[in-house]
C-alpha cells in the first residue's frame, strides 16, 4: 500500500455547488492555478456536461494546468462521459469521475431504477469511460447509506471494468468517524479485487464531522485519497476542508505515517483567493486559515509562546502561508516593482492589458491608502475592472452625505453596458442609500440575503473593507464582493458585482433557451 495520501480538490465542482458560490471561467482558472501552486494531486475542475459554461471552464483549466491531474465529473451515461473526455482533451493528465446512486432511497425515489439496472449502468459507464481515458474514478452516490452487499457487487464490477479509483461518498454527511472507517475497511476486505484500485473518501459536513470521517476513512479504512475543498466550501455545511486534513496528516505524521505533496505555504493564499472569489468569508476561529487561528490573546498563552513557541503552538503560522502584514509597496512603486510583487505572489495575469488595469487600480489605491499589503494586492486582483471579463455594471463614482440628525443620502454614477446612470436615494445609512440608489435604476427586484464587512488586513482602521453581498432572485443565489478603503464604495462595488452575476446567469439561460 502506498504511503502517499492523494489530495483531490473539488472546490471548483462540489464547492461551487454551494448556492451563491458559482464562479466564472476566469475565476475558476485563477483558482485552478493557485491549486497547482498548492500542489494538489487532482483538480476536479467541474461537471463538463452540466452546461456550455461548465464545459468551457473544464476545457480552459485542462488546457492550462500542466502538473496536476484535471478531472471532470460525469453521470454514468455515454453523453456525459463523452463531454467530459472532450473537455479534458488538452490536459497532460486527465481523469473522468463517473457516478450513480446506490442507496435504496436514491435508486427507488430518485433514479426509479432497480438494483440490477444500476449495477449494469455502472458497469457500462466505466467500460465506456475506460476506452476514452486510462484514469477512471467511480463513485456510488450516497454510498455510505447503501447496502454493503450490493455495494460490493457494484464496486467489484466497476473495478473489473477498469476503474482505477473507488470513492465512497458520505453524500448527506450522516457518517460517524469509527463507523465510516469500518465501512470502508469492510468493503475492501470483502472484495477480491479491491487492491486493484485506490480507495478514496468524500465526506460532507452536515454533522460537523467531515474532516474526522475522512481521516478515519484513511486510518481505519485504508483510503489513500481524500476529496476536499479549500475552506471546506460546499453545499449545506460544506465538504471536508483541505487545509485541516493536510495539516492534521502533516502535524500528526507520527500517527498517520503518510506523506502529502502539498506546499503548505500556499494554503492561506488559496484560502483568501477562494473566500474573496466566492464571497464565502472564513470564520475567525476556523482551524488553520481563520484570522484567529494563530492569535494568542490570553496573558498566560502569550507569555508561554514568547518563552517557547511550542508551549501553545502545534503548527507555525508561516508554514501555512500566514505572513506578518508586510508593507510591500507604496505610491512611489513603479510598474516593474508591481509586476515583480505579483510574480512573488504567484499571480499570473492573462495579458498586458490586465497588468495595466491592475497597475492602474494599484496606483489609485496607493493614492488613498499609504501602506499597501499583499492582501490589498490580492483583493484588487479580484476587482472586475482588472479581469478580462467585461462586466455589465461598473461603478463610476459615488458621493454620499451623512450627518448626525440628518437622513443620509447617496448619489451613484454607474455604467450598465453602454449606458451611464445617475442615481440618487436616501437611506437608513450611507450604505443603504447607495444600494437603494443603484436599485432605483436597475430594478432587479433581488432579495438581499446577506451583507457583511471585513477588514482585509487586521489591526488597523486604515485597512480596506471587503464587503460581501448575497442576492436571491427567482431561486438563484449569487454573492458579490467589493473592496475599497471606503466601505460605502466597497458596498456599492459588491452590490454591482452581485448584479453582474445575476445578469450573466440570465444571459446564459437566455443563450441556452
Ligand atoms: O457527495 C457526493 O455524493 C458527490 C458525488 C458526485 C461524488 O459529490
Ligand atoms: Zn459531494
UniProtKB/TrEMBL annotation:
<dbReference type="InterPro" id="IPR013785">
    <property type="entry name" value="Aldolase_TIM"/>
</dbReference>
<dbReference type="InterPro" id="IPR005671">
    <property type="entry name" value="LeuA_bact_synth"/>
</dbReference>
<feature type="region of interest" description="Regulatory domain">
    <location>
        <begin position="394"/>
        <end position="513"/>
    </location>
</feature>
<keyword id="KW-0432">Leucine biosynthesis</keyword>
<keyword id="KW-0963">Cytoplasm</keyword>
<dbReference type="GO" id="GO:0030145">
    <property type="term" value="F:manganese ion binding"/>
</dbReference>
<feature type="binding site">
    <location>
        <position position="202"/>
    </location>
    <ligand>
        <name>Mn(2+)</name>
    </ligand>
</feature>
<keyword id="KW-0028">Amino-acid biosynthesis</keyword>
<comment type="similarity">
    <text>Belongs to the alpha-IPM synthase/homocitrate synthase family. LeuA type 1 subfamily.</text>
</comment>
<keyword id="KW-0100">Branched-chain amino acid biosynthesis</keyword>
<dbReference type="InterPro" id="IPR054691">
    <property type="entry name" value="LeuA/HCS_post-cat"/>
</dbReference>
<dbReference type="InterPro" id="IPR050073">
    <property type="entry name" value="2-IPM_HCS-like"/>
</dbReference>
<keyword id="KW-0012">Acyltransferase</keyword>
<feature type="binding site">
    <location>
        <position position="204"/>
    </location>
    <ligand>
        <name>Mn(2+)</name>
    </ligand>
</feature>
<feature type="binding site">
    <location>
        <position position="239"/>
    </location>
    <ligand>
        <name>Mn(2+)</name>
    </ligand>
</feature>
<dbReference type="InterPro" id="IPR036230">
    <property type="entry name" value="LeuA_allosteric_dom_sf"/>
</dbReference>
<dbReference type="Pfam" id="PF08502">
    <property type="entry name" value="LeuA_dimer"/>
</dbReference>
<dbReference type="InterPro" id="IPR000891">
    <property type="entry name" value="PYR_CT"/>
</dbReference>
<dbReference type="InterPro" id="IPR013709">
    <property type="entry name" value="2-isopropylmalate_synth_dimer"/>
</dbReference>
<feature type="binding site">
    <location>
        <position position="14"/>
    </location>
    <ligand>
        <name>Mn(2+)</name>
    </ligand>
</feature>
<comment type="function">
    <text>Catalyzes the condensation of the acetyl group of acetyl-CoA with 3-methyl-2-oxobutanoate (2-ketoisovalerate) to form 3-carboxy-3-hydroxy-4-methylpentanoate (2-isopropylmalate).</text>
</comment>
<keyword id="KW-0808">Transferase</keyword>
<dbReference type="Pfam" id="PF22617">
    <property type="entry name" value="HCS_D2"/>
</dbReference>
<dbReference type="InterPro" id="IPR002034">
    <property type="entry name" value="AIPM/Hcit_synth_CS"/>
</dbReference>
<dbReference type="Pfam" id="PF00682">
    <property type="entry name" value="HMGL-like"/>
</dbReference>
<dbReference type="GO" id="GO:0003852">
    <property type="term" value="F:2-isopropylmalate synthase activity"/>
</dbReference>
<protein>
    <recommendedName>
        <fullName>2-isopropylmalate synthase</fullName>
        <ecNumber>2.3.3.13</ecNumber>
    </recommendedName>
</protein>
<dbReference type="GO" id="GO:0009098">
    <property type="term" value="P:L-leucine biosynthetic process"/>
</dbReference>
<comment type="pathway">
    <text>Amino-acid biosynthesis; L-leucine biosynthesis; L-leucine from 3-methyl-2-oxobutanoate: step 1/4.</text>
</comment>
<keyword id="KW-0464">Manganese</keyword>
<dbReference type="GO" id="GO:0005829">
    <property type="term" value="C:cytosol"/>
</dbReference>
<dbReference type="GO" id="GO:0003985">
    <property type="term" value="F:acetyl-CoA C-acetyltransferase activity"/>
</dbReference>
<keyword id="KW-0479">Metal-binding</keyword>
<comment type="subunit">
    <text>Homodimer.</text>
</comment>
<feature type="domain" description="Pyruvate carboxyltransferase">
    <location>
        <begin position="5"/>
        <end position="268"/>
    </location>
</feature>
Amino acid at each position: 500500500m502506498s504511503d502517499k495520501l492523494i489530495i483531490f480538490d473539488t472546490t471548483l465542482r462540489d464547492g461551487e455547488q454551494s448556492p451563491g458560490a458559482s464562479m466564472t471561467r476566469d475565476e475558476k482558472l485563477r483558482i485552478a492555478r493557485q491549486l497547482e501552486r498548492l500542489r494538489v494531486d487532482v483538480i476536479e475542475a467541474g461537471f463538463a456536461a452540466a452546461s456550455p459554461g461548465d464545459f468551457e471552464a473544464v476545457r480552459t483549466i485542462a488546457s492550462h494546468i500542466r502538473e496536476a491531474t484535471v478531472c471532470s465529473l460525469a453521470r454514468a451515461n455515454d453523453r456525459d462521459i463523452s463531454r467530459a473526455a472532450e473537455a479534458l482533451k488538452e490536459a497532460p493528465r486527465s481523469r473522468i469521475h463517473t457516478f450513480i446512486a446506490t442507496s435504496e432511497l436514491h435508486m427507488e425515489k430518485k433514479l426509479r431504477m432497480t438494483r440490477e439496472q444500476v449495477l449494469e449502468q455502472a458497469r457500462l459507464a466505466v467500460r465506456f469511460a475506460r476506452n476514452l481515458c486510462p484514469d477512471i474514478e467511480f463513485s456510488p452516490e450516497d454510498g455510505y447509506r447503501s447496502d454493503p452487499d450490493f455495494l460490493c457487487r457494484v464496486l467489484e464490477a466497476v473495478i473489473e471494468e477498469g476503474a482505477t479509483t473507488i470513492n465512497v461518498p458520505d453524500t448527506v454527511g450522516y457518517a460517524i468517524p469509527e463507523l465510516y472507517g469500518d465501512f470502508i475497511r469492510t468493503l475492501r476486505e470483502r472484495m477480491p479485487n479491491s487492491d486493484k484500485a485506490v480507495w478514496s473518501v468524500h465526506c460532507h459536513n452536515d454533522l460537523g464531522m467531515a474532516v474526522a470521517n475522512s481521516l478515519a476513512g484513511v486510518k481505519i479504512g485504508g483510503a489513500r485519497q481524500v476529496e476536499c475543498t479549500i475552506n471546506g466550501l460546499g453545499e449545506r455545511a460544506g465538504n471536508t476542508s483541505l487545509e485541516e486534513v493536510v495539516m492534521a496528516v502533516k502535524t500528526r505524521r507520527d500517527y498517520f505515517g503518510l506523506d502529502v505533496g502539498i506546499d503548505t505555504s500556499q494554503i492561506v493564499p488559496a484560502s483568501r483567493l477562494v473566500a474573496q472569489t466566492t464571497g464565502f468569508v472564513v470564520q475567525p476561529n476556523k482551524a488553520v486559515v481563520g484570522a484567529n487561528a494563530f492569535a494568542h490573546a490570553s496573558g498566560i498563552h502569550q507569555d508561554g509562546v514568547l518563552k517557547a513557541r511550542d508551549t501553545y503552538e502545534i503548527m507555525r503560522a508561516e508554514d501555512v502561508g500566514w505572513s506578518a502584514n508586510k508593507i510591500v509597496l507604496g505610491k512611489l512603486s513603479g510598474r516593474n516593482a508591481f509586476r515583480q510583487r505579483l510574480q512573488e505572489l504567484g499571480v499570473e495575469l492573462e495579458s498586458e492589458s490586465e497588468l495595466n488595469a491592475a497597475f492602474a487600480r494599484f496606483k489609485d489605491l496607493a493614492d488613498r491608502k499609504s501602506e499597501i499589503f499583499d492582501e490589498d494586492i490580492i483583493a484588487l486582483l479580484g476587482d472586475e475592472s482588472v479581469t478580462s471579463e467585461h462586466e455589465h455594471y461598473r461603478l463610476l463614482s459615488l458621493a454620499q452625505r451623512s450627518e448626525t440628525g440628518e437622513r443620509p443620502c447617496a448619489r451613484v454614477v454607474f455604467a450598465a453596458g453602454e449606458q451611464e446612470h445617475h442615481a440618487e436615494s436616501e437611506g437608513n445609512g450611507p450604505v443603504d442609500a447607495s444600494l437603494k440608489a443603484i436599485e432605483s435604476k436597475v430594478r432587479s427586484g433581488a432579495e438581499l440575503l446577506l451583507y457583511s464587512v471585513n477588514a482585509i488586513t487586521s489591526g488597523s482602521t486604515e485597512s480596506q473593507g471587503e464587503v460581501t453581498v448575497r442576492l436571491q432572485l427567482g431561486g438563484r443565489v449569487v454573492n458579490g464582493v467589493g473592496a475599497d478603503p471606503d466601505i460605502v464604495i466597497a458596498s456599492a462595488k459588491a452590490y454591482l458585482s452581485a448584479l453582474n452575476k445575476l445578469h450573466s446567469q440570465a444571459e446564459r439561460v437566455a443563450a441556452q433557451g
